[in-house]
Task: structure prediction
Amino acid sequence: GDSVTQMEGPVTLSEEAFLTINCTYTATGYPSLFWYVQYPGEGLQLLLKATKADDKGSNKGFEATYRKETTSFHLEKGSVQVSDSAVYFCALRQGAQKLVFGQGTRLTINP
Amino acid sequence: ETGVTQSPTHLIKTRGQQVTLRCSSQSGHNTVSWYQQALGQGPQFIFQYYREEENGRGNFPPRFSGLQFPNYSSELNVNALELDDSALYLCASSSADGELFFGEGSRLTVL
Result:
């Protein structure tokens, strides 16, 4: 079945550092790809998405590009802030079907 | 426009008991899905309801059941609780093939 694999965490960076969180997927067909963020004590919030190959999703300084040839959707940000500390989930979805999530990556940004 | 609301936010049960979790979907949404998020893991799909009918189910036993009401709100019921059922239960609502909006979850502890 479909699956998502994220880089193992946790990840700790200093403020203003460059961030990359790797995500690869296995899927039949052509899924949509998502990054969700979960702040402490809260539910999931959609951060960005891409629906077809070579699309770039972006929001709040975060970016991810749908790479079909490498089945990847890596999350990047050029300069992280303390407020970016959260758990980040990569996910895929086929049409109107369920979301399939990775295991999550906990990010901590130190001032 | 109100978002997705879940209740209760926290609850504690003992093994063998039954629990009902509730979810009010976002205005205009006719699809509700439920996810289980164990500690340190990504959310796992339980099932989805569309116009009061279950139209997708994940790998969960029959003691996990649900309902969707005419106003599109939903319940998740779990019978014969086990220790491993301890988790954050997330509800998400959407239009038929639209973006999912998540509630903040109900945290269940089974002792």
